From TrEMBL:
This is Glutamine--fructose-6-phosphate aminotransferase [isomerizing]. Residues 42-182, 214-354 form the SIS domain. The lineage of its organism: Bacteria, Bacillati, Actinomycetota, Actinomycetes, Micrococcales. The keyword Nuclease does not apply. It catalyses: D-fructose 6-phosphate + L-glutamine = D-glucosamine 6-phosphate + L-glutamate. GO terms for molecular function: carbohydrate derivative binding; glutamine-fructose-6-phosphate transaminase (isomerizing) activity. Keywords: Aminotransferase, Cytoplasm, Glutamine amidotransferase, Repeat, Transferase. Coiled coil: none annotated. It comes from the Bacteria. It is found in: Cytoplasm. The keyword Cell inner membrane does not apply. Its EC number is 2.6.1.16. GO terms for biological process: fructose 6-phosphate metabolic process; protein N-linked glycosylation; UDP-N-acetylglucosamine metabolic process. One of its GO terms (cellular component) is cytosol.
């Protein structure tokens, strides 16, 4: 079943271009420059009535929810945020009828997310699922949803399904955008951007050998920072999570803007920073944070787009294909999967079955 790969994680990372093509097939509507998401079971008029979106999920699914919220704010211009489902249900949440709740889960069986879904429904809210496993509890109990069609994910740490979740949010953001104020031209731009995604992911996978070299260096550091801003912050959180889970090296994600409010004290030649620096409106601000790190001799691995000028701010650079800014975070997560995989491989870890973790957490 490994089909020539040494682990399921590696196989699943490499399946992404094909599995993403499959997920997108039939869901892009060129005529109206929108997404076709029949499984949501919500018509355009009802969709227009939602004034807010809240994503809930656990672990990596929560981080992708954060990324999704920023896509929804970018494209639909309605307030959106994400919350850990494990916290949500314990704070007697205020459930509003004009909020669309999105439950995000690979397995569809995570207890914390399932109970949050029930709490929302008990209080009269509408919740849709972004779920991979067909017929799972969350998929069945939600009012509608978007199946991720990533195929089975065997490795305990999630990779390909998270990318599919990113695409699921992009489709939802496009649809919500088009029933609100997103122009036809911008809709068409996003449709074309989504169609280009599987090819961009493949391009990234083709750079695996270079990323493996960087990963071997990173594996030597017992601790590292991952930083990003806004869209890039969710990417940084997921990158740090993946490294922790499978290499057991400590990694902590911060908003690049927060570095100077405390964690800068830890920057030294022994503390590398993986910096997510997309070529977007925040690029200068991100470079500003790198100046602070360079001034304290902190080594930087930049995950970035072609053409961003670092001077001597980043010793290592991983260059990711640049598409539409709203969708770019999806592709930016791919090198972080490879970084974690190769760091864990260099340390001889049990990559598919990391210690203390289970694929599906069905207890609270
Ligand atoms: C990370 C990981 C976990 C899951 C989390 C939620 O690699 O696998 O953080 O993302 O336990 O699981 P699902 O998505 O099945 O609800």
């Amino acid at each position: 079943q490994l089909e020539g790969h040494d682990t399921f994680l590696h196989k699943e990372i490499h399946e992404q271009p094909t599995s993403l093509e499959r997920m997108l097939s039939g869901r892009l509507d060129d005529r109206f420059a929108t997404a076709r998401l029949d499984g949501l079971g919500i018509d355009a008029r009802e969709l227009r009535g939602f004034r807010r979106v809240k994503a809930i999920g656990c672990g990596s699914s929560f981080y992708i929810g954060q990324l999704g919220a920023s896509m929804i704010e970018d494209l639909a211009r309605i307030p959106a945020d994400a919350e850990a489902a494990s916290e949500f249900r314990y704070r007697n949440p205020i459930v509003e009828p004009d909020t669309l709740y999105v439950a995000v889960s690979q397995s569809g069986e995570t207890a914390d997310t399932l109970f949050a879904v029930r709490e929302i429904q008990r209080k009269g809210g509408c919740v849709v699922g972004l779920v991979n496993v067909v017929g799972s509890s969350i998929a069945r109990e939600c009012d509608g949803g978007i199946y991720l069609h990533a195929g089975p994910e065997v490795s305990v740490a999630s990779t390909k399904v998270l990318t599919h979740m990113g695409v699921g949010f992009a489709l939802l953001a496009l649809l919500l955008g088009r029933v609100h104020d997103l122009s036809y031209a911008d809709g068409a731009r996003i449709v074309a951007g989504l169609r280009a995604l599987p090819g961009q992911v493949q391009q990234m996978l083709d750079s695996e050998d270079e990323i493996a070299v960087v990963a071997k260096g990173l594996a030597q550091s017992p601790s590292s920072f991952f930083i990003g801003r806004v869209r890039g912050y969710a990417v940084a959180r997921e990158g740090a999570q993946k490294l922790k889970e499978i290499s057991y090296q400590h990694a902590e994600a911060y908003q690049a803007s927060e570095l100077k409010h405390g964690p800068l004290a830890l920057i030294s030649p022994q503390m590398p920073t993986v910096a997510i620096v997309p070529d977007d409106e925040l690029v200068e601000r991100n470079l500003g944070a790198l100046h602070e790190i360079a001034a304290r001799s902190g080594p930087v691995i930049a995950v970035t787009h072609p053409g961003v000028e670092f001077g001597d701010l980043a010793a290592e650079r991983i260059v990711v294909p640049h598409g539409e800014v709203e969708l770019d975070p999806i592709v930016l997560t791919i090198p972080l999967q490879l970084l974690a995989y190769h760091a864990a491989a260099a340390l001889g870890r049990d990559i598919d079955r990391p210690r203390n973790l289970a694929k599906s957490v069905t207890v609270e």
